[in-house]
Amino acid sequence: MTHRYDQLWLNANLFTIDCNSAATVMPDACLAVTGDRITLICPMRQLSAAPEQLAASVHDARGGWVTPGLIDCHTHVVYAGDRSMEYRQRLQGKSYAAIAEQGGGIQATVRATRQASEEQLLRASIPRVRAMLAQGVTTLEIKSGYGLDLAAERKILRVARQLAEVLPVRVVTTFLGAHVTPPAYRTTPEAYVDLLCQEMLPQLAEERLVDAVDVFCDDIAFSIAQTERIFQTAKALSLPIKCHAEQLSHQGAASLAARYHALSCDHLEYARQADVTAMAQQHCVAVLLPGAYYFLQAGQKPPLALLRQYRVPMALATDCNPGTSPTTSLLLMTHLAQHLWGMSTDEVLLGVTRHAASALGMADSIGSLQEGHIADFVIWQIEHLAQLSYYFGYIPPHQTIKGGVPQQEASHEQSQ
Length: 416
Ligand code: NIG
Ligand code: FE
Hints:
Layout (H helix, E strand, L loop, with lengths): L4 E13 L5 E12 L2 E7 L7 H4 E6 L4 E4 L1 E3 L11 H8 L4 H6 L4 H10 L2 H16 L3 E7 L6 H17 L3 E9 L10 H18 L5 E5 L7 H13 L4 E5 L7 H7 L4 E4 L5 H9 L3 E4 L1 H6 L8 H6 L4 E3 L13 H12 L3 H7 L2 H6 L17 E4 L6 H4 L7 E5 L2 E2 L10
The site of N-(iminomethyl)-L-glutamic acid has 13 residues, from helix 4.
C-alpha cells in the first residue's frame, strides 16, 4: 500500500508562526514528513484517516514540544589554539583592546590557526560542532577570519565545508578576511584591503567556498571607508553581506551595511536610532550576541527597545570564538538574552529559529515549522516552551530530526 507521507509524528505541541510571522503555538498537533520536507502540520483532530494508513512510519511525540531545528547564525567555530590565559588577564583588569594591541587577541588565534594543518583544524572543530548539535542545532554559520591570507582563509572555509560532510549539519560559510589587519600590513592597511578585494575574495568565491561576506568595522579593525570598499566587492560578486557592527564603539557601520542590503548586522551594542531605522527600512536582521556581551562584561546593552519599536527582527547566536565567546551553547544564549536583556520567551525562540534563518537568507526553507519547508525540527520533552531558556547548563531530553532523518536521541542530561 502506498502512503501519502513517509513519516508522521503524533501528539506534539508545535512552536510555529502565524500569518504575520509572530510566534504562536499549535497544541495537540501532528506533523508529517515526505522525503526531506514537512508536508503536513495540523491539529490531531483534523487527521483525515488512521495514522498507519497515512504514513509508512508513525512516531509518538509523547506530548513533547516541537521547535524548528535551531540555527546558530554567527560563529567562528573553526580555529586553533587557546586563549584561556587572556581571560585571566582580563579578569585582572586588562582590556580586550589592550590585549589586542600587544599581539594577543585575534592575532594570537591567527598565529595558531595558520600553523595548524587542515586535518588538525578539522579535528579541533569537530567536538565543538558536536556539542552544538547535541542541543538541537541543525544549521550553522561559520566564518573564516583567523587566517588573514589566501591560503589560511581557504583552509578555514574548506574545513567549514567538510564539517557539513562529516556531521549531520547544514553549514553556511562567511568570508571574514576583514576581521583585523594582519601584522604584515600594520602600517599599510589599505594594501591588505586591496589584496582582499582584488585577490582573496574573488578567488575564494570562484572556488565556491563563500556564501556571504562579513567585515568587522571598529577602531581595532576596519574603518567605514574600508568596509564600504569590501561591501562593493561583495556586491560585484553577487555575495550577500553581513557586518560586525557597533560592537565596541559607534562607527555607523550598521547604517552603511543596511544601505548595502546586508542580511544582518551583528553585535550592535553601540547602535543608535538612525542605525536601527536604516536596518528596519532594509529588512536587515539584528544578530545579538549575549555570549560576547557577557564574557567581555560589556556593560553597554544593544538597543532592544529601539529594535522592538522599529520591528527589526532579532536573532541570537553563540558567536562561538576563543576570545569573546568561548561557548557552543545556543540554549545558554537564549537564557542570557532573557536574563540580561529582558527578552521574552517568544523573542529568544524566534531568535534561534525564524530570525536566525532570515539572517542567513534562508527563511523560505528553514527556521519555521511550515509545510514545504525542510524537515529540520527538534522534539523536546518539556512541559512548557519557557523551560528552554529557563535552564542554564541543562539541556532537556530531546530528539533532533534533520532533513526528515531522526538523529540519535539525547535522552539524558548533558552539560552545556
Ligand atoms: O565576534 N568582533 C570581532 N570578532 C569576534 C572576536 C574574535 C576574537 O576575539 O577572537 C567577535 O566577538
Ligand atoms: Fe563574531
